[in-house]
Design goal:
Length: 465
């Protein structure tokens, strides 16, 4: 009996009432010298006892998971698992378009008509079918994706538009009633396969057609096309939106922050003229208006931009709350949450920078002589963001004017943190990345009990502007 190796790269929901899956594999070969396992060819379905539909219990018992290298017969019947395991990123790194000179790669296609020449894309764009099965499974390169109501709307690299039933067990499956736009990577060249979906044709229906479904979604992890794995892509012009929320007039003379007009002017010039952002500034917002502005910018398309910056200047207090001019507060966590990949998918995988000039408590740094004013509301020394960065998602960078528990100072020329931030970025912009700039600016303002303040962040890469 002839046997061969294959790697599991996708599970799909089987059309069956029990807990079952359809398992998709790619054939593998081992290097003669290194023993390296390399996937190649076209995707296919793994069979167990002659059945494509496999119980999830069987998969668990046999340790079959995405990345498992299995042994099978020549006609794709499962025999056993091996001790080898491949990361999905390693598997998909072998993707090549059909016609590539490399014969030991995974075949992908630029569109449905190329992958399935006998398929009919229906005029209402609702599904594809074919009367002759031909190729059963294929990976198709995509330009855009969105999911809604169990279906996925696809634009292929050939410009074909179609929506398919979504059987994928991918993390991008959305069970809500809302549309979810997926963060598809922009290809860097004609030969760059980019992001792909797995389309498979199932059993013949009573109408005599085989119907295609989406059974796998494979997207670039960071959603960017950067050639440097250590940095974010930062080539768009403008770079992105810069949103400034500046609360100055609180209706009480001792609480007003009129000198913040110099901060706003300096930041506007810095981000527009020096860093090439599209800047929008809003003043004197009530607590709910701050959230409305964040919601407004989260709903905008950031597809053609590489980053987002939000600068908040106001009174603040416990739990990293931000005070509106009406005296009511809103949590910084709540404002940031508008820009998660679920609520703002066009910013998925892109850096989201939040700069906050506000107090985080009532204590005063011994560095200051007490002549400056403090951006403090009626609050105690407390901070939720000091313990855990919100939202629980990467690609956010937080820069505060002070450490938790302490006030943030300003004088007649603006706030110390913002002015130091502007000076530092202007001085270093040609040779330093943004994370270092923000840290340097923070160090120039506050150094309390040997604590090193600066941005709490969950960025995966450096930001080069």
């Amino acid at each position: 009996m002839s046997v061969t190796l294959a790697v599991v790269f996708s599970f799909a929901k089987a059309h069956h009432k029990n807990h079952t899956s359809i398992v998709h594999c790619l054939k593998c070969k081992s290097g003669a010298n290194s023993g390296q396992i390399r996937p190649y060819g076209h995707p296919f379905r793994l069979m167990v006892n002659g059945m494509y539909i496999i119980s999830n219990e069987y998969l668990r018992e046999n340790g079959i998971d995405v990345g498992s290298v299995v042994v099978m017969t020549a006609n794709n019947w499962y025999i056993s698992t091996t001790e080898s395991h491949l990361e999905l990123s390693d598997v998909l790194s072998h993707l090549k378009f059909k016609g590539s000179s490399s014969g030991s790669s995974i075949r992908s296609y630029k569109g449905i008509s190329e992958a399935f020449p006998n398929a009919n894309i229906h005029s209402d764009a609702r599904g594809i079918s074919q009367t002759y099965l031909g190729r059963q499974c294929a990976l198709v390169s995509v330009e855009s994706l969105k999911t809604v109501d169990g279906r996925i709307h696809v634009t292929t690299r050939l410009g074909e538009k179609v929506n398919l039933y979504n059987s994928s067990r991918s993390n991008y499956e959305d069970q809500s009633i809302n549309e979810l736009i997926l963060p598809v990577k922009r290809p860097t060249s004609q030969d760059d396969v980019g992001d792909v979906i797995l389309i498979s044709f199932g059993s013949r229906t009573e109408q005599g057609n085989y119907w295609g479904t989406c059974e796998g979604i494979f997207l670039n992890e960071d959603g960017s096309a950067s050639e440097d794995p250590d940095r974010y892509k930062m080539t768009s012009n403008p770079r992105g939106y810069c949103l400034i929320l500046n609360n100055m007039d609180y209706g009480i003379e001792e609480k007003n922050r009129q000198s913040a007009v110099w901060d706003e002017q300096g930041l506007h010039d810095l981000f527009e003229k020096e860093l090439h952002f599209e800047v929008y500034a809003f003043r004197d917002l009530k607590y709910f208006e701050m959230q409305q502005r964040c919601e407004q910018f989260a709903k905008l398309s950031h597809d053609n931009y590489d980053a987002f910056v939000c600068i908040i200047m106001a009174h603040g207090g416990s739990g990293d709350s931000i005070e509106g001019v009406d005296g009511r507060t809103i949590g910084l966590k709540q404002l940031m949450s508008e820009f998660t990949s679920v609520r703002c998918p066009s910013l998925a995988g892109k850096p989201k920078v939040f700069i906050v000039q506000a107090c985080r408590g009532r204590m005063r740094d011994q560095f200051h002589d007490g002549e400056e004013q403090a951006d403090s509301g009626s609050s105690s020394a407390d901070s939720t963001l000091a313990l855990s960065s919100y939202p629980l998602e990467c690609d956010f960078l937080l820069a505060f004017a002070t450490v938790p528990g302490y006030v943030a100072f300003r004088d007649n020329h603006g706030s110390l943190f913002i002015q130091a931030l502007i000076e530092t970025i202007k001085a270093d912009k040609a040779r330093e990345h943004l994370l270092d700039m923000l840290t340097k600016a923070a160090k120039r303002v506050t150094d309390i009990s040997n604590q090193v303040p600066g941005p709490a962040h969950t960025l995966r890469y450096k930001i080069y502007l």
